[in-house]
Structures are given as structure tokens and as C-alpha cells.
Specification:
Structural class: mainly alpha
Number of domains: 1
Shape: globular
Strand content: 5-15%
Distance between the termini: 53 Å
Oligomer: single chain
Radius of gyration: 21 Å
Length: 349
């Protein structure tokens, strides 16, 4: 149903690739090795496999990588739609084709918009816990952000790289994390329903319609799929897990960054103002179904991790990775003391 060539063409047109690069690959590999060593020393999480080499990519390169990541996810979703979403016969086929054009245009607009914002990404196959991973750093966005923040470009690159390397250490060193993410996402896809508020056009969107799609992507309003109220616990589990993943990376990038990024305080203040750079393809899915979290995932997750580490040290926070049962509930995410009280017996064994 989705025309991926159309998705790529629209996304590339919206991305507006700027000329030039501004960063060199030289020395980045050694920095990643040093970052991994520092993160392991601070968190006591040991990766189970070598981390992927860092890649400096263009917006187009980020688009291509995310299309490949999203294709199996959307294919799994498409597989569930025909029997319940479209009538049989020629009219059903026509409706399916028109819906495919609309959905392709939405995805293209959304991916193109995000390609202008994302700074870095630890890219994992969302439904395949054993698939290969990539560590992507989006050069034009890093350059643009450094200029906007009036920040040191090399410091920004190091700091963002620390964030993504922390994700790499998490997902490689916590054996249950990727399977849990895949399981939760599969449950979410199973629960989604296709909702068409008006018949989609059987054609490419014109300039006015494409502009409206980009504006909707910016506001997180591309809700072509919806999840029923009874399935909200699935969403809550996925969101809470990702809040811990992101909050932990935010905590670590600041603690370890203090050792290697001289302008950390300036970067933290500037990035908190910018906060549109979350680095996972789940952002695309969230916006497509109206579940954009914006600041919440960073803010709540970091507040939880900072609170636990302040109360019990990094050793206490490390226990959040012991098992799925040690992940906080949504209530505990907002109140680290509740998590500390519940998990005290397990943490002291």
C-alpha cells in the first residue's frame, strides 16, 4: 500500500539538503571508543558485542536509513489492515490505492521534516532484536545547531555522540531491552486501527496540501491510525520504557560529558531550548498515530534517573537494568522515591 519511492522523493524534497559538511571522520572512531570506556566505567553496563562505527551522514542518508528501519514496521501494520479496513471489489481496491497515496505522502512529509531536526541516532531494527545497528550523526543539523546555539561545533558533536553511544551500550549490554521493545511495538501495531476522516485523493498532493502535511508533521497531528482507549496500557508501557532509555542517556551524557566536553553547561541550556532532536524512528510512529511526547520523554526520564542517582548513587540507578520488573511504572517515573522503596529488597540482595 505504501509507495516507498514516493516517500523517499517527498522526504528528500522537504529535507532541503544544505551544501558542505563541516566535520571530518578522522578521530571520531577513537572518541567513540573512549566514550564507551567512560560510559562502562560510570554505569557498569558491559556491551555484549562491539558497538557500530560512527557514521557522519547527510539528511538524505538519515532519510534512507530510517526508511529501511520503518519498512518492516509499516509492512507489519499493512498486513493487518485489508480484512477490516477496505471493502471487497473495485471500490475497495480504489480506496486502498488512495489511502496508500495519502499515507505515503504523510510519511514522506514527516520523515522529511524530522530529517532537518535530528542530530544523532542509534538505529536499531525495531521488530528484530537480532538485527544489525548503526550509529548515525547528521552533519548538516549538527552544524546548523551549533551555529544557532553559538556553540563549539566539536563539543556539540562529542556531546551528541555520547548520547548515542550510551544508547548503544544500553541496547547491547541489557539483553532483555531490545526484545521488550520489539514485543511492545508489536502489541501496539496489533492494536492500531485505520481511521479515515475523509476520502483520500487518488493523486499526489499539490503544493498547498503538502505544505499542510508538513505543518501537521511539525505539530504532531498526523493521526491516520488510532489506538483505542482499552489499549492505552500498551502505549504506557512503551512510553515508560523509552522514557527510562532516553532519560538514562540524558543523565549519562551530562555526567560523562563533564569530563570531555568543556562547554557542557552552554550546550545543555541550548539543547533544552531546542529539544526536537530525539533520535529514534519511534518518533515517526508516535506522530503518525498522534502520540508525540515532545518534552515529556526527556524531562520525566531524566528527572527520574537524576533523582535515583542523587538518592542512591549510580549503583542504585544501574539496577533499573536488572530485569523488566525493575523498570518504573508511570507513577514511579514521576516519583523516584516510590521506585526506590519498591525495589529496595531487590537492590540490597
Amino acid at each position: 500500500m505504501i509507495d516507498w519511492k514516493l516517500v523517499a522523493r517527498l522526504a528528500g524534497g522537504i529535507a532541503r539538503e544544505p551544501p558542505g559538511t563541516g566535520y571530518a571522520q578522522e578521530g571520531l572512531g577513537s572518541f567513540v571508543e573512549d566514550a564507551e570506556s567512560r560510559i562502562r566505567a560510570y554505569t557498569a553496563i558491559a556491551p555484549g558485542a562491539p558497538l557500530p562505527a560512527p557514521e557522519l551522514v547527510s539528511r538524505r542518508g538519515w532519510i534512507d536509513a530510517n526508511i529501511e528501519t520503518l519498512r518492516p514496521v509499516m509492512a507489519a501494520l499493512e498486513h493487518r489492515l485489508p480484512a477490516r479496513a477496505f471493502a471487497a471489489g473495485p471500490l475497495g481496491h480504489l480506496a486502498r490505492s488512495a489511502t496508500g497515496v495519502t499515507l505515503s505522502a504523510q510519511l514522506g512529509a514527516l520523515i522529511g521534516y524530522l530529517s532537518q531536526r535530528v542530530l544523532g541516532q542509534y538505529d536499531i531494527p525495531l521488530l528484530d532484536p537480532t538485527g544489525g545497528t548503526r550509529l548515525l550523526l547528521v552533519v548538516p543539523n549538527l552544524v546548523d545547531t551549533a551555529e544557532r546555539l553559538e556553540a563549539n561545533r566539536d563539543d556539540l558533536l562529542r556531546w551528541v555522540t555520547l548520547h548515542e553511544v550510551t544508547h548503544a551500550v544500553q541496547f547491547s549490554g541489557v539483553p532483555w531491552l531490545r526484545p521488550l521493545l520489539a514485543e511492545n511495538l508489536t502489541q501496539l501495531l496489533d492494536a492500531l486501527e485505520l481511521r479515515l476522516h475523509k476520502p483520500p485523493p487518488l493523486r499526489m498532493p499539490d503544493g498547498r496540501e503538502l505544505h499542510a502535511l508538513v505543518d501537521s508533521a511539525r505539530r504532531g497531528e498526523l493521526a491516520m491510525f488510532a489506538i483505542g482507549r482499552k489499549n492505552r496500557p500498551i502505549v504506557e508501557r512503551l512510553q515508560t520504557t523509552m522514557a527510562v532509555v532516553e532519560g538514562h542517556a540524558e543523565h549519562v551524557m551530562d555526567k560523562v560529558g563533564a569530563e570531555v566536553v568543556p562547554t557542557l553547561a552552554q550546550l545543555r541550556a541550548g539543547l533544552d531550548r531546542r529539544r526536537s532532536s530525539r533520535s529514534t524512528p519511534l518518533r515517526v510512529i508516535e506522530r503518525l498515530i498522534g502520540l508525540e511526547l515532545k518534552l515529556r520523554q526527556y524531562r520525566d526520564g531524566k528527572r527520574f534517573c537524576d533523582g535515583v542517582a542523587e538518592a542512591g548513587g549510580i549503583a542504585a540507578l544501574d539496577h533499573v537494568w536488572d530485569s523488566q520488573d525493575m523498570l518504573p511504572s508511570s507513577a514511579e517515573l514521576a516519583d523516584p522515591d516510590r521506585w526506590m522503596a519498591r525495589t529496595a529488597p531487590a537492590r540490597t540482595r
